[in-house]
Amino acid sequence: MRSAVIGVGVIGSLHTHILSERKTLCAVCDIDGEKLKKYADIPTFTDYKVMLDEVRPDVVHICTPHYLHAEMVVYALDKGINVLCEKPLCISIEQMKRILDAEEKSSARLGVCLQNRYNKESVFVKEYLSDKKVVSAVAHMAWHRTKEYYASGDWRGKKATEGGGVLINQALHTLDLLQYFAGSPSHIVSNVCNLTLKDDIEVEDTAVIQGTKGAGITLFATNGAAYDMPVVMSVKTKTDIIHILPGHVYVNGTEQPLEETYARVLGKECYGSGHELLIDDYYKCLQENRPFEINGREGSKVVSIILAAYKSGGEETEVVYG
Fold first, then answer.
1. What count of other Cβ atoms lies within 10 Å of the Cβ of residue 178?
2. What DSSP line would sit under 212-235, residue for residue?
3. Would 88 be classed as within a structural domain?
4. Is the pTM of this model over 0.90?
5. Inter-residue contact 171 to 207 (CB < 8 Å)
6. Of 248, 153, 243, 139, nearest in space to 201 by CA
7. Which tens digit of pLDDT belongs to each residue from 197-206?
8. Which residues constitute the domain of residue 220?
9. Are 170 and 219 a contacting pair, CB within 8 Å?
């Protein structure tokens, strides 16, 4: 298959690396011409519409800043081009409606990069819970982000372009796993605040979400920790307590054997090892003409919870799913 990538910055470079190894990369696009110089052996573009119109790839990977995702996803789907979009799928309810409408009308397939579902711990837990009722699921994410991190891109730390802070960027994957394991809450209560970067960003660095109706999920997340700590998650069923740490799963105190998978950590450590597995699975689904599990509607669930959290302000709020 022929693959193109829009946005070849930090996360886009990970996608181009994987696609280059599989010899499917046929074109790239970025508004920064300097970033394009290392792709001298394939066509490069600074306008994504021109690239899609001229190259007509089988799949386009969208790896741009958050606020650009919706318009690019819709444009590609309208042209019948398959799309694999980095998280978050979008940053507003209005964008979500446009994307899901375009997905429904398109002959092409939309996939969303929620790669932590492919971690060996996640695969084990999802299967273990397949015949069990989850009572509660709790996660703690304590990471460290600096003023310099937010200054690395003019879209970072701004509501209009990033869509929010720790929730929609760093904690999104952890929140997605909570609802993936426990189900999606119909109502939540949330508070967000800025504890450490008040003078540097206009969005939150710390957040708490509690599911009040439907799934009983709880998330504590911050970018204000002194150091990046491992994400810790606990899931309670009627009979079991499951603790999930990077590379380990404990059921009622006993460590469980996890199936080893061929998975490399590419890029930042916090990305995990799921990107490669997700991308391969997405392409396999396309080639075998079967649904990809993390489509637009599935990928929009975590965004719906986050948007409700931003609206909450400490009051119970309904989660509006697409």
1. 28
2. EESS-EEEEEESBSSS----EEEE
3. yes
4. yes
5. yes
6. 153
7. 998 999 999 9
8. 117-268+296-318
9. no
